[in-house]
Amino acid sequence: MQGHIGVTRINWKHAAILLATGLLFQSAALPSDAQDQPKRPRITGIDHVRLYATNVAKSREFYEKTLGLSSASGRCGVSVHSCFALGFQRVELESLPTPAPNNQLAEVAFATNDIGGMHRYLSAHGLEVSAISKGPKDVLHFELRDPEGNLIAFAQRSIPIVEPPIKPPRSHAVSGKLIHVGFVVKDVASENHFYVDVLGFKLYWQGGMKDDGVDWYELQVPDGDNWIEYMLNISGYRRPQGAWGAESFFFRRAGNTGGCRAAS
Q1: Between vectors from CA 114 to CA 132 and to CA 163, what angle results, nearest 5°?
Q2: Is the four-CA dihedral 110, 114, 115, 120 of positive or negative sign?
Q3: Mapping DSSP to helix (H, G, I), strand (E, B) and coil, where does residue 115 land?
Q4: Pick the residue with more confidence: 82 or 235?
Q5: What's the pLDDT at 158?
Q6: Beta pairing, strands 259-262 & 249-252
Q7: Could you give the residue ranges of the DSSP H alpha helices within 30-161?
């Protein structure tokens, strides 16, 4: 009986070793989900904002003469859109298409240090992204839609926006840097899944016109000081012609912490 038990124990021991060895080879052959998932590249700030304009000529005059922005920078000279430089960032103008969209914010683009890695990362999360294209000054760029249909882009430049600008803005320019962009949001949870869970944005501030309300919800980019703003509790998107719109953005004034709102 003892001999039989001994053989049984040896057989069980061998079986356990074989099972453990098989699991080891299986785990080596099949990478974990964490190993399969690409790492998100850095998102360092806002690269550019593109706005629809009903009258590009008048809008250009506003940005140049009223806000003092320069369209003569080499970063914008060969752009297909009217373009204004703020350091390494841009504000672009595009003619309002027909039929006119409800939202006059045409595109928000974020700067990344690895455009190919970002493309792979978003694709791995099941998001539909365009092909990577090369624009003026060899800027690499691709686009996608956020959950509410806003056109979002990522761009990689040879000179990242985290570095100081090549030259200071005009002496009368309202700002030398674009620090945030806002847009109307209806479903915070859906947008947060994209911007927070997938892209890694973090809560910067939230508040409202009343102490117990939230009308503005701001998220900071994960690797920089720029942020986006959800504008909440807005029943309609389309603004009256000539009125200042909800899809406006802020410039930081050079030398202080104030801001100036600029409309398209």
Answers
A1: 115
A2: negative
A3: helix
A4: 82
A5: 79
A6: antiparallel
A7: 33-36, 56-61, 115-124
